[in-house]
Write a structure and sequence with these properties.
Blueprint: E1 3-8, H1 12-22, E2 28-33, E3 51-54, H2 56-62, H3 68-74, E4 77-85, E5 91-104, H4 105-119, E6 125-128, E7 131-137, E8 141-146, E9 151-156, E10 159-162, H5 169-177, E11 183-197, E12 212-219, E13 222-228, E14 234-241, H6 253-263, H7 273-281, E15 285-292, E16 296-297, E17 301-303, H8 306-309, H9 318-335, H10 340-364, H11 370-389, H12 398-403, H13 409-433
Parallel strand pairs: 1-2, 1-10, 2-6, 4-12, 10-17
Antiparallel strand pairs: 3-5, 4-5, 7-8, 8-9, 11-14, 11-15, 12-13, 13-14, 16-17
Helix pairs in contact: 1-4, 1-9, 2-9, 9-10, 10-13
Length: 434
């Protein structure tokens, strides 16, 4: 008998889960509900777009579905170097021992969706766009509002998956339905604005090469990150403190052009007046972190990805950990022979330890203190050298360990717990002074 699975959210995590479930021997009927439109028909706005850096942890989850890893890599840019642009005009190239694969989030969603429809074009898959989840009715009935027809409708389900991101409505519904379910949702101090630059052969840039992640440290709290994508376009973000920032004061093209000319003149070689204007009009966005005391409700509802454990983007692990969620859930379904009650309970037990560890690492790996920042760079260089010479005896440096799917986040935190505690104490002291 087919189990009907309702997945709320057609982001990377929800779409990958649909791939896995439909690949499990005809056991599931999958229905996906997404409040936005179909990206294959109408392009999503670039106003909040940002590049995702997938490492081997993320690709380890993709490559279990035949053809999926190759399709995503074909739309990605392989990142082998990071280029730090100094205020004196010089650049410093930081090489990576293992590459990252950069892809715009909107493009990742489109690839996963196209592959899903091509592979599973059958009555067992139904994708519903412009459908806003509005709540749960007992028993096993959920409510939606169709944003195009302005009508309400109900859907029955056997299993409910909340993959609707950091501001999850499903998670809020969990709290309404259970007195024992608890979660916290906290905004990080930094905000960001997206930068998008279209592809054009007429745009000149002295260091224009794919495979390089460019960044400019404007000051100790403001950083610009930019990468050229596979189609020749550039996208990235400028991150800055939400309070007392200079970015919010840039009101027009002239002020913004002067700001870029002063702090990152290379951008003025790439951006047209229209693109600078678009940047001015882009909204200031904030990132929220999420922590839950568990990820499942009863025996038939589960939170996954950012809906369960959104983290700071400081380490770039949000999407990687969300994709890894799907792989781990699939392994648990194998272990418990598709007994969801046991698999979901074990998912909470197993995954929460790693999710909490990743949150700590993301929040407190990078110090505010300039002195500790220098210490971090030196220590990582030593770790890198020792691990390269004696891999059996030394733990890999932070970013390399994050990329390794066989190393759990909780193991990484255990190794770096002394450093994390030191940074946490220092950061809290400096923030209190400010």
């Amino acid at each position: 008998m087919l189990k009907k699975v309702a997945i709320i959210g057609a982001g990377p995590c929800g779409l990958l889960l649909a791939h896995y479930l439909l690949n499990r021997d005809d056991q599931y009927q999958v229905e996906i509900y997404e409040h936005r439109g179909d990206p294959r028909i109408v392009s999503y706005s670039n106003s909040r777009t940002f590049p995702i850096a997938l490492n081997h942890r993320g690709y380890n989850a993709l490559n279990k579905i035949p053809g999926l890893e190759a399709a995503v890599k074909a739309a990605s840019t392989t990142v082998t170097n990071m280029v730090s642009h100094q205020k004196n005009g010089q650049t410093k190239v930081i090489s990576r021992s293992k590459p990252l694969f950069s892809i715009d989030r909107n493009d990742l969603v489109k690839v996963l969706l196209e592959q899903l429809v091509q592979k599973y074009h059958s009555p067992k898959l139904k994708i519903n766009f412009h459908c806003k989840y509005t709540g749960t009715l007992e028993p096993k009935t959920i409510k939606f509002h169709n944003l195009k027809t302005e009508t309400d409708f109900n859907v029955n389900y056997d299993l409910l998956i909340g993959a609707d991101g950091a501001r999850s409505v499903v998670r809020s519904n969990f709290a309404e339905l259970s007195d024992t379910f608890e979660y916290s949702q906290v905004y990080i101090p930094n905000a960001y604005k997206s930068i998008f630059i279209t592809a054009s052969e007429n745009k000149k840039y002295c260091d224009r090469q794919q495979g390089k992640f460019h960044f400019w440290n404007v000051d100790k709290n403001t950083r610009i990150l930019l990468i050229e994508q596979a189609d020749g376009s550039f996208n990235g973000v400028i991150r800055f403190p939400y309070k007392k920032n200079s970015i919010a004061n840039l009101k027009n093209v002239e002020e913004t052009s002067l700001y870029f000319q002063k702090n990152c003149p290379q951008l003025t070689e790439l951006m047209t007046t229209a693109e600078v204007k678009a940047f001015v009009n882009n909204p200031i966005s904030r990132v929220t972190t999420v922590c839950c005391n568990r990820y499942h409700l009863n025996n038939n509802a589960l939170l996954i990805g950012d809906a369960a454990h959104a983290v700071s983007p400081a380490l770039g692990e949000g999407c990687n950990s969300a994709l890894e969620d799907v792989l781990i859930l699939n392994q648990l379904l194998d272990e418990f022979r598709d007994n969801w009650a046991e698999a979901m309970e074990q998912f909470t037990i197993s995954r929460k330890a790693d999710a909490d560890a990743l949150a700590e690492l993301s929040n407190y790996s990078f110090p505010i203190s300039r002195k500790l920042s220098t210490e971090f760079v030196i220590k990582q260089g030593i770790h890198k050298t020792l691990y390269r010479m004696f891999p059996q005896h030394f733990f890999p440096p932070l970013f390399e360990s994050l990329s390794q799917p066989n190393v759990r986040y909780s193991e990484i935190l255990s190794f770096y717990k002394g450093w994390v505690s030191k940074v946490k104490k220092s950061n809290e002291k400096l923030l209190a002074q400010l």
